[in-house]
Amino acid sequence: MISLLTLPAPAKLNLFLHITGRRADGYHNLQTLFRMLDVGDELSFQADNSGEIRFSCSDASIGGDDNLVVRAAKMLQPLAAEGSGVCIHLDKRTPMGGGLGGGSSDAATTLHALNLLWQLELSTQQLADIGLKLGADVPVFVFGQTAFAEGVGERLQPVELPDCWYLVATPDAHVSTAAVFTHPDLTRDSKPLTLADLMTSPWRNDCQPLVERLCPQVAITLQWLVEYAPSRMTGTGASVFAEFADELSARRALADLPANCRGFVARGLNQSPLLTALRHAV
Fold first, then answer.
1. Angle ∠(134,136,138) on CA atoms, nearest 5
2. Distance, CA of 133 to CA of 72 (rounded, Å)
């Protein structure tokens, strides 16, 4: 029986993001292409018989019972044997408020880890259904594939993309996802397109014009990055990215990163490194 597990929680990019309508429940219908990356957070899990969920993080600002990792664990605990507990440590590496899916990915990794450690034997679909209650981006990380998503992000279709490298730059700014999606000026009427049409059309992010206006740092960072390659914002920001054919070109651009930004180079993957790590853990 496995009791100790260390797993990655990879970041993602939204290669495009179209908002096609607002639902009665306040959520939005969208079309997006999630791209998995080979960088992200890392979580360690130590299962025990304490009946408690204990959490620590390398970032002191993340704590309490309201973070997605603890909430994910609490959703699974009633399904586990009596007395099942766990000690979780999160090594936080993905910028918060960047649109890179860090918290959602952490939650998905937690669901997979505790499914294994607590021997729950839930299917991937069952984990994704639980994850959707935590957030719209959690299911794609549970399935762990670069994917075209519709609905609120839960209807997923795997997509195979060519190998490439990305430079991701995050200005010194935090963008509230809730503030973006509740703003009256957000574009909400993009015409739904087929995946085939989307793959041959220019890609855009419907949130980007609003966020550039609300957060000038994002606009400034995009103006810098577009000098190296076509650039867009991911999710609701504040992180922006550009695609490069090779790692060296991306790292050359990273070397010129403005002083008010953090950045990293990542490889785009069709399968999440979480799935690879889980196969090796079994």
1. 65
2. 9
Domains annotated on the chain, with CATH: 4-159+277-281 (3.30.230.10), 165-269 (3.30.70.890)
CA–CA separation, 263 and 168 (whole Å): 5
Q: How does strand 85-91 pair with strand 53-57?
A: parallel
Contact by Cβ (8 Å): 210, 183 = yes
Within 10 angstroms of residue 138's Cβ, the number of other Cβ atoms is: 29
Interval 141-152: pLDDT, tens: 999 999 999 999
> Which residue type sits at 233?
M
**β-pair partners for 43:** 7, 90
The reported pTM is 0.95
Exposed e or buried b per residue across 211-231, where buried means at least 16 C-beta atoms within 10 angstroms of its C-beta: bbebbebbbbbbebbeebbeb
Whether 92 is catalytic is no
Give helix then strand counts, H and E, for the chain.
Answer: 10, 10
Q: What tokens appear for 66 in the block?
A: 């309201």
**194 three-class SS:** coil
Question: Which residue of the set 129, 137, 189, 191 is catalytic?
Answer: 137
Catalytic residue, candidates 12, 41, 106, 206: 12
- In the structure encoding, which two tokens stand for residue 139, read together? 């299911």
SS3 5: strand
What is the per-residue pLDDT across 178-199, written as a single tens digit (0 to 9) for each? 899 999 999 999 999 999 999 9
